[in-house]
Design goal:
alpha/beta, three-stranded antiparallel β-sheet, eight-stranded parallel barrel, binds flavin mononucleotide, single chain
């Protein structure tokens, strides 16, 4: 990414990169929760945690990028190694633990990005802010962390995602329980309503929830007037791996699994959520998207937008253009 940054700073190579990787603007534009997305292919949270590469990711053709997870205070995250490849499975296992520069630093970077974007009249990349809590914050105070990040970034991002589904912050996933979510979202929606430009507010969920838990999420999403759902985060289930990969994954230790092995479960969750909300609540699909076919499957399951992450690692920088080309021909 740092090499790409250097290349994008040189006029001619920047133009070449954009020509090579961007899908021509026009026929894939889409308005979702009131925002105009240049195309429906985004980059999932956790890649550009610190909003350091927005210009470069836009050059690679992404229609939107979800920065973060951002926490109020900077965190170094878990000890390294904390990110592993299961290449045979086209999968990753990570236990990063919300390493990030903290909301104040990230806000400065976003202010800078927004001002240069205005100056240069460059593209219309949508930026989502994925927010979380610090590891040391107890769960009963978690809402305060979400509130800090929400208010600090409100002017600087286009939409928000409340992340309560990472397996790598101890106890975080317990916040997916209805009462805990109600507290967080009533605080955020209250603040949101007081702003000049209220921002769409979404919730990102784990793929490991039961039907009953998903039903609770849907009921709450309607109750607190969410703009949409992001489905799904990484899974703690490894039972779908081959015997060899499972054994290898055991040597890596704890962490969330992403990529191909997550694909089917994540599609099932998208489909279930879409059915339960009568297709009325926008869903951003995340989980095992590598190709145009994979993206099309998620859209048929009920997704309005898709995000890649592990697919970007295995397929490389052409992934957005490939998916967009397929969608333009097949949707
Ligand atoms: C190394 C790594 C770090 C991640 N960090 C975050 C994060 O900070 N916040 C978050 O909401 N999701 C995070 N994710 C989850 C991804 O955004 C995505 O939802 C998940 O990997 C499933 O998509 P995929 O199969 O395309 O990778 C991370 C994933 C990976 C592989």
């Amino acid at each position: 990414m740092d090499c790409l940054k250097i290349a994008c700073n040189i006029g001619l190579s920047d133009t070449l990169i954009r020509k090579s990787f961007q899908y021509p603007s026009g026929n894939l534009e889409k308005t979702v929760f009131g925002l105009d997305f240049p195309n429906p292919v985004g980059l999932g949270a956790g890649f550009d945690k610190n909003a350091s590469y927005l210009n470069e990711l836009e050059a690679l053709g992404f229609g939107f990028v979800e920065i973060g997870t951002v926490t109020p205070k900077a965190q170094i995250g878990n000890d390294k190694p904390r990110l592993f490849r299961l290449a045979e499975e086209k999968a990753l296992i990570n236990r990063m633990g919300f390493n990030n520069d903290g909301v104040d630093e990230i806000k400065k970077r976003l202010i800078n990005w927004n001002s240069t974007k205005l100056k240069n009249h460059k593209g219309n990349l949508i930026v989502g802010g994925n927010i979380g809590k610090n590891k040391i914050t107890p769960n009963e105070d978690a809402w305060k962390d979400y509130k800090i990040c929400f208010n600090q970034l409100h002017e600087e991002v286009d939409y928000f995602v409340v992340n309560v589904s990472s397996p790598n912050t101890p106890g975080l996933r317990e916040l997916q329980e209805k009462d805990a979510l109600r507290k967080i979202f009533s605080e955020l929606q209250n603040d949101n309503a007081g702003k000049k430009n209220p921002k769409p507010l979404l919730l990102k969920i784990a793929p490991d929830l039961t039907k009953e838990q998903l039903d609770d999420i849907v009921a709450l999403a309607i109750e607190v007037n969410l703009s949409g759902l992001v489905a799904t985060n990484t899974t703690i289930d490894r039972t779908m791996l081959s015997k060899n990969s499972f054994a290898l994954s055991e040597t890596f230790g704890m962490g969330g699994l992403s990529g191909k092995p997550l694909q089917q479960r994540s599609t099932e969750v998208v489909h279930y959520l879409s059915k339960q909300t009568n297709g009325q609540m926008p869903i951003i699909a995340s989980g095992g998207i590598f190709s145009g076919n994979d993206a099309e499957e998620k859209i048929h399951a009920g997704a309005s937008l898709v995000q890649v992450w592990t697919g970007f690692i295995y397929e490389g920088p052409s992934i957005v253009k490939n998916i967009c080309t397929h969608l333009a021909q097949n949707l």
